[in-house]
Backbone:
């Protein structure tokens, strides 16, 4: 009986286990040496969740999301350093300003469709990047800004990686829980309805454009908060962190994590960060490997698993649980069929155009 | 008899050079089941789209419960309070959008069902309750008590409509796993969940077998009983003649006849439009 | 502004505008036939330039042969990209296709950067006469090549699209793919051809601009301007694309030459972005009006 209850509530157990795991990471006897990377994973997850919600639920892609991330970082940096504002207040102002900006550009942008919308986001991202570079009297130009103060509560400064780890993951988990609640609610249903069929959603009284803008604003606020935390962590910001490639990396994280998945965002951000930091630092003799891999991931995942890698893995394990008894038979059958299937696919790919008939 | 729930005056819709709806005047009486029939291409779905607010008419007016759907409610109220129309002018005439019409009480279903394939059967209906609930981002994110109470209400209401169409035991299945006939019932339940005063059913009988069509007729009668006016577009003549209390016939964008089933069946113009008194139900 | 400076800006504007026009044509061809925006278009240009250098300088092949092979390689990459990345994504959503082309773009850039290094090198110009004076402005002979070749490509493309069977088939796909397949046009083959043409045109652009170029990472910025040129043509009209490209090039150079307000050369990159956003705004406004009218 208890077992049955436990099986139903397994998500709660999984999340509790995850939190326990996270809490222990910064300790040296556990995984302490990964503390710094995990801080970045936490920050990236915050941005990724917003992007996943945006891309997964409204079906719109944002190719310039690093702009909001950068806005948060720069607002925080400038307000807390140049104007000596309380860093928390700066963070709040940054979030509000970024959200307002997203709101203003949101309505005209979301009247566009598909390709044009993507290009608009790309354009916004590039313009922000150029501004970060050019408005040097505020932003320090291409060399960036140093000396950003720490966040602190009372007299307690978040001055070590250890302390900042908990700060960042507190925010990150809070955002994940809030997003989870939103998705499970009336608002979440409206978003899923929009994703499912816009015309039907509209007929049920859902103001589609307004929702798309709202999610856009929400994702921009998430990105802004993440950017602020980033600024107070590195104590240094520069435009390099917010260029087109950064926006692409965010899309990679979202794609790996699953476009409409929330907890998958941790997976996406985590794998991408570990990929870029750990694995590739050791492979200096293979330059550009990171973007080669990103490109491959983007292509392969979107071709074969458009819902995202994490979601595909989840459904894969679900399928496994259901079908594990038949596995040997299935593998046998696959082994026999595979060569013919490959020949067929290859033949179609290469020679179909030579066969002068209309494709189905 | 009270005022008609829906009225169109001189309604026209042109797509570039193609005139889809040509100066159509019609009245839908409250509480009656009205059918709109006509050969293919007559403009029936376009008419629905105009009423539902998906298209904006090229000219003419649509009145819902006496209020024009050209102006949003606040503007109509301003007009009533005597603000000079010439001052405000035509420029402020805004089209009441589709989602606003849903909250005003106009619901509709689609020819191709358009269910939300990424949700369960029950969730589809709960989405229909969207306009009748209020809590937003903050209530949802923080799971405030008001939000949780509203969610309970939504759940209960959705189950009510689900049982009304007889799909209660499928509540947690994915919406697309139902056979077509039941999907259509689900679509109706979803539209009903918006607690409308008027429901537009676009070819509800298409793809249904005889038994399902009988259930559909019964459902429409039940809908009428709870006080919702039903308008349907249909091709299946026996179904229409059996259930409709008033029939409007369109051809090439114009209204060519209206009346009771008996009257319409004898009307020469209608017969001419269809080239035959009985049409086999064309599967739409 | 002196007449000389004006003419100088005009000439460099036309030169650069021609490149934008070429890249824009690549976007337009693919979009018209397949409704896909190929974010990797700029990479075709990069490949053309890169291979022209490798083949002409490193491998020592005679210039015309090297250029031809470079263009063929770019076209081949376009074909492979279509076959492997796009055709296999059966009925992918718009957002998926966008991400796929971006993935392809950075993949190609990464492989190229990995194999051939990130440092920029330029092949020699096509003809080696010194700069000439034309209407009071100095002009590199390479610039004349650029303008001339762009002109030639435009004419050839026009003739191809209007007078050959394949060209007409492409236009049919652009107008209505389902109707086109109903009359026996193999739309997938047409899509492949569109990608090959776009690759070739991109390659030509790269080959022609490489002697003047001094940056490796030009893919994005050039691609962006080509995109803007194409969007001026609504992605459907090659003529408008070419005109758009030229106009963009001229406006850019004039703005810098005239030193209008904030347009220092550092802000040069903002100009295409502003034009792009203007076009998108106009489009968004038109869409809103159209939506209201149904």
Residues:
């Amino acid at each position: 009986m208890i077992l049955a209850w436990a099986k139903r509530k397994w998500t709660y157990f999984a999340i509790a286990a995850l939190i326990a795991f996270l809490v222990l990471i910064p300790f040296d006897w556990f995984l302490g040496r990964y503390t710094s990377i995990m801080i970045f994973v936490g920050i990236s997850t915050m941005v990724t969740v917003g992007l996943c919600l945006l891309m997964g639920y409204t079906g719109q892609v944002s190719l310039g999301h690093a702009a909001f991330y950068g806005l948060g970082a720069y607002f925080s940096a400038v307000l807390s350093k140049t104007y000596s504002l309380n860093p928390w207040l700066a963070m709040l102002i940054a979030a509000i300003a970024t959200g307002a900006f997203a709101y203003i550009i949101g309505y005209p942008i979301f009247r566009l469709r598909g390709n044009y919308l993507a290009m608009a986001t790309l354009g916004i991202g590039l313009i922000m990047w150029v501004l970060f570079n050019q408005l040097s009297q505020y932003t320090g130009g291409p060399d960036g800004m140093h000396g950003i103060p720490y966040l602190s509560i009372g007299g307690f400064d978040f001055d070590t990686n250890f302390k900042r780890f908990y700060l960042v993951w507190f925010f990150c988990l809070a955002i994940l829980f809030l997003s989870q609640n939103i998705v499970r609610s009336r608002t979440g249903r409206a978003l899923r309805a929009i994703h499912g069929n816009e015309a039907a959603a509209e007929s049920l009284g859902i103001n589609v454009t307004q929702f798309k803008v709202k999610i856009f604003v929400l994702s921009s606020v998430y990105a802004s908060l993440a950017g602020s935390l980033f600024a107070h962590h590195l104590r240094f910001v520069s435009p390099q962190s917010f260029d087109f490639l950064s926006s692409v990396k965010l899309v990679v994280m979202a794609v790996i994590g699953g476009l409409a998945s929330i907890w998958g965002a941790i997976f996406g951000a985590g794998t991408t960060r570990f990929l870029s930091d750990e694995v590739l630092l050791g492979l200096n003799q293979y330059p550009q490997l990171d973007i080669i891999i990103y490109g491959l991931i983007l292509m392969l995942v979107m071709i074969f698993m458009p819902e995202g890698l994490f979601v595909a893995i989840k459904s894969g394990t679900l399928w496994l649980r259901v079908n594990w008894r038949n596995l040997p038979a299935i593998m046998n059958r696959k082994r026999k069929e595979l060569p013919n299937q490959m020949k067929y696919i290859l033949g179609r790919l290469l020679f179909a155009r030579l066969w002068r008939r209309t494709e189905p | 008899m009270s005022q008609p729930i829906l009225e169109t005056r001189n309604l026209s819709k042109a797509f570039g050079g193609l005139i889809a709806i040509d100066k159509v005047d019609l009245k839908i009486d409250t509480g009656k089941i009205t059918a709109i029939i006509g050969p293919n291409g007559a403009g029936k779905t376009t008419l629905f789209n105009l009423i539902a607010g998906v298209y904006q008419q090229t000219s003419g007016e649509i009145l819902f419960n006496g209020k024009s759907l050209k102006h949003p409610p606040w503007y109509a109220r301003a007009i009533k309070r005597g603000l000079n129309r010439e001052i405000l002018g035509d420029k402020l005439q805004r089209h009441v959008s589709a989602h606003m019409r849903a909250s005003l009480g106009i619901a509709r279903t689609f020819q191709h069902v358009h269910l939300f394939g990424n949700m369960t059967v029950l969730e589809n209906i709960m989405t229909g309750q969207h306009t009748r609930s209020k809590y937003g981002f903050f209530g949802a994110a923080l799971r405030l008590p008001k939000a949780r109470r509203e969610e309970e209400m939504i759940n209960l209401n959705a189950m009510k409509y689900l049982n009304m169409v007889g799909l209660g035991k499928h509540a947690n299945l994915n919406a697309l796993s139902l056979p077509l006939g039941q999907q259509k019932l689900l679509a109706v339940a979803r539209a009903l969940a918006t607690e409308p005063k008027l429901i537009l059913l676009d070819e509800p009988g298409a793809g249904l077998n005889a038994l399902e069509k009988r259930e559909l007729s019964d459902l429409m009668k039940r809908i009428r009983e709870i006080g919702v006016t039903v308008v349907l577009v249909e091709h299946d003549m026996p179904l229409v003649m059996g259930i409709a209390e008033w029939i409007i016939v369109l051809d090439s964008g114009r209204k060519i006849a209206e009346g009771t089933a008996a009257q319409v069946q004898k009307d020469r113009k209608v017969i001419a439009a269809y080239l035959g008194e009985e049409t086999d139900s064309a599967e739409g | 502004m002196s007449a000389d400076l004006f003419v100088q800006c005009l000439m460099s504007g036309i030169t650069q505008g021609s490149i934008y026009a070429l890249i824009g044509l690549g976007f337009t061809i693919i979009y018209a036939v397949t409704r896909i925006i190929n974010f990797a278009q700029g990479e075709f240009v990069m490949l053309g330039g890169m291979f022209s250098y490798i083949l002409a300088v490193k491998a020592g092949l005679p210039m015309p042969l090297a250029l031809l092979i470079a263009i063929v390689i770019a076209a081949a990459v376009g074909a492979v990209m279509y076959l492997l990345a796009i055709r296999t994504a059966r009925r992918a959503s718009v957002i998926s296709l966008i991400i796929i082309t971006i993935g392809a773009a950075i993949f190609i850039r990464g492989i190229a950067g990995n194999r051939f290094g990130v440092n920029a090198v330029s092949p020699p110009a096509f003809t080696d006469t010194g700069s000439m004076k034309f209407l009071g402005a100095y002009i590199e002979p390479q610039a004349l090549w650029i303008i001339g070749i762009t002109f030639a490509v435009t004419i050839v493309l026009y003739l191809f699209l209007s007078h050959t069977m394949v060209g007409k088939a492409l236009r049919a796909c652009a107008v209505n793919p389902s109707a086109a397949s109903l009359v026996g046009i193999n739309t997938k083959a047409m899509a492949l051809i569109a990608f090959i043409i776009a690759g070739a045109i991109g390659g030509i652009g790269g080959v022609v601009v490489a002697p003047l170029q001094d940056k490796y990472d030009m893919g994005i910025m050039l691609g962006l301007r080509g995109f803007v040129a194409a969007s001026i043509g609504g992605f459907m009209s090659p003529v408008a694309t070419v005109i758009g490209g030229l106009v963009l090039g001229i406006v850019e150079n004039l703005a810098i030459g005239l030193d209008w307000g904030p347009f220092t050369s550092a802000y040069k990159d903002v100009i295409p972005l502003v034009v792009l956003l203007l076009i998108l705004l106009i489009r968004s406004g038109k869409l809103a009006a159209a939506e209201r009218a149904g």
